[in-house]
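Two proteins were folded this term; both appear here.
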Amino acid sequence: MLHTERVSQQIEGNIMKQAAAMPQQLFGGQVPPDSKAKFDAFELQLKQATEAQIGWKVLGPEYVDLYAKTYTEPELDAILSFYKSPAGQSMLTKSPELSAQSMQLVQAKMTTLQPQLQKLAQDFVQSTKPAATQPPPTLNPTPKTAPKSNQ
């Protein structure tokens, strides 16, 4: 449970870091004095909303249930022992940075992959359209002229 509690705290922390960065984005720096009280209230609302939905007090019992359904008691004891060990503590400490670097790696690859996936999807859709909805193939690129009538 140590791991899941830390994950919950990390998510909450990330949301609050994003909120703390908002003044730079919105105001180009610090919150103007006339907006400080509103921003403080906004941060408090964010914190309360986050804790109400994904705080440990809310998620903890659900995680306990998930773990109980997934692992046997001996497995849970071993997992808990691991997380209490120096290696487990190291993993808990380093996991957020490792996760962030992993996300950056995947996002960089997705930049290249996304256009390829779009092209494949477009090609697939085009290949599955009924023949009647596709323009007829051009066999002769020069237009034929109608024969002149003898009137």
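Next, the second protein.
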Amino acid sequence: MTTDLRPYPDYKDSGLPWLGRIPAHWSIRASKRMFSQSGERARHDDEQLSATQAYGVILQSDFEERVGRKVVRIINHLEKRKHVEPDNFVISMRSFQGGLERAFARGAIRSSYVVLKPGDSVHVPYFGQIIVDYVSERIPTSRNGSPIRSLPSPTNGRGKHAHVQATLGTRVAG
């Protein structure tokens, strides 16, 4: 993925042990400035979602089909569920295991989950790769989104995460 990228002339230490050196013109930005917590309640036509480490946040029916078994369905307090949109991030009840997942479907999740909505400057595939696939496996989070929401995230200015993702892709994925 990074074979066609040219090296930058100057690098600096990112200050993040998991990241190492970054191009000198990049900066580190707190994730909480890029996301807002959503408290929107489920809509009447929302289908139930499952937050999974293997597939992200998907329709519960899709999860059951993929794994070949039924899972526990909520039947009480449906009005307390939270609405989720594709590309939101969900912090699950197993957050001590790195339970931060990207949503790939619209629907409703249990009220005990935290839903984070990305701001306009967030390149969701980048954040999903860096934070979900790499960082959340190593840095446990609490149920309210900390320290994930305060986690520093590299950017090359004004939210240009797509380029950062391309540059870091091979290092992060491995």
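The radius of gyration is 17 Å. Residues 141-147, 170-174 have pLDDT under 50 and may be disordered. These notes refer to the second protein only.
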